[in-house]
Amino acid sequence: MQWYIHIVDSISEWIGRVFCWALIPLVFITAFEVFMRYIMKQPTIWAWDTNIQIFAVITFIGGGYTLLTKGHVTVDVFTINMSERKQAILAILTSFFFFFGIFVLIIKGWDIFIMSWKVKETMPTVWAPPYYPMKLLVPVGSFLLLLQGISEFLKNINTILGKNNEGKGD
Fold it and tell me: What is the pTM of this model?
């Protein structure tokens, strides 16, 4: 069990550290477009489409990293005074909803990607770059989130059983 946690956490950490750099071109392209649109009065036809694509990569591929670092929005008003063990029990009990949603995203996301790829769908803009690579991000990102979700599930089991999450073996 520990080997899975270590491998998946390492992958999620690596993905987060690599893909966070996509924010730099996102900021520069936005600044360039604002300059071209409002100062030069010559807006580009590609900047916003490119920003949407970069943001999609950051959002979908970074989901597992966000789960690893506890960055997702939670309603901790109910759990703030609970012990770590009780929080782990609650997380396991509610994980059904997480896993159900992720499986739906993977399956339906794959179907939507295939349909988009078959018709070579493009974005409904003047520049019209292909849409299907972005749609592939839904099942791929959901799969990465699933892997991290399993890791978090196993960590919660370790917490309930009183095992150290940083230990070796299993």
Answer: 0.90
